[in-house]
């Protein structure tokens, strides 16, 4: 992830921004909903709709570094259908 880290200006300040694949993967794994004031899957859908391309190979590799495996696999399967 560090090699893919980018810097963007937000409110006039350059800040580090994680790659979209990492952000999408984290939100897919968290899967929080309105009951906790979050909308992770809606955020994932919006990011996917606005990205020119998603590096699925990198996303799957990153997912392989997480655990537990069953939860990660469920998140990947759902991502592939969004």
Strand order of the largest sheet: 1-2
Q: Uncertain segments of ≥5 residues (pLDDT<50)?
A: none
In what range is the share of β-strand residues?
5-15%
Spatial extent as radius of gyration: 13 Å
Structure, described:
There is one protein chain. By secondary structure, this protein is an alpha+beta fold. It contains four helices and two strands. The protein has one domain. 52% of the residues lie in helices and 12% in strands. A hairpin with a 2-residue loop joins strand 1 and strand 2. The chain is globular.
Short synopsis of the structure:
By secondary structure, the protein is an alpha+beta fold. It is 52% helix and 12% strand. It has helices at residues 20-30, 40-50, 56-64, 69-80; strands at residues 6-10, 13-17.
How would you describe this structure in keywords?
single chain; 82 residues; alpha+beta; two-stranded antiparallel ribbon; globular
Write the layout of secondary structure elements.
Layout: E1 6-10, E2 13-17, H1 20-30, H2 40-50, H3 56-64, H4 69-80
Antiparallel strand pairs: 1-2
Helix pairs in contact: 1-2
